[in-house]
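User: Could you write out the 3D structure of this protein bound to S-adenosylmethionine? I've included everything you need below.
Assistant: Certainly. Input first, then the structure.
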Amino acid sequence: MRETFAFLGQAVTRFRSTGAVVPSSRRLARAMAAEVGDLAPGAVIVELGPGTGVFTRELAQRFPDHRLVAVEFNHQFAAALRAQLPRVAVVEGCASQLPDHLRRLGIDPGRVQAVVSGLPLLSLPRELGDRILAAIRDTLPIGGRYVQFTYAKAPWRTRRPGGFTAARARRVWVNFPPALVLPFVRD
Ligand SMILES: C[S@@+](CC[C@H](N)C(=O)[O-])C[C@H]1O[C@@H](n2cnc3c(N)ncnc32)[C@H](O)[C@@H]1O
């Protein structure tokens, strides 16, 4: 409940970048993490826009032996997540700078096999969204997974990320509002 209020507070002051009024459900978090699939030992998972960490906790539980990097723009969310999940490398910064963040952490981008995004890509400025998609594309190797959630499927028909093949979308009704999990595979 404390997280819901913290999220709501940020949504009120920074609606465009927060992109939702309450955190995602545990059910959506499970569906997102399931789309990561099987990872090779030593693979790194990147999460973009973790907010209060509902996807982060699910990823940490499902992949206890893999390195997790979370990139969050909002200072309050980043600080709280760092305190709660010390095993996750929480970077306070913009997702569009992903290759630089990885370099600073000493992570070879070739080790990143999955990017899980809680970013409100459709409500961010178009140019920023395009730079974020390019950063994800430049980071993932062929076969790498990019998992995005969205509340609206239609805009993604004209906003297909270049360099990826879309896999089957899954709807998660138990979320406010109901959401879709969009998995993409790097070509
Ligand atoms: C819709 S919320 C999702 C939070 C969480 N993943 C969830 O599902 O409950 C979007 C999150 O993305 C963060 N965000 C927005 N733009 C960002 C950017 N350019 N780089 C990193 N994080 C960003 C926001 O601060 C917010 O925490």
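The longest helix spans residues 126-139.
User: Perfect, thank you.
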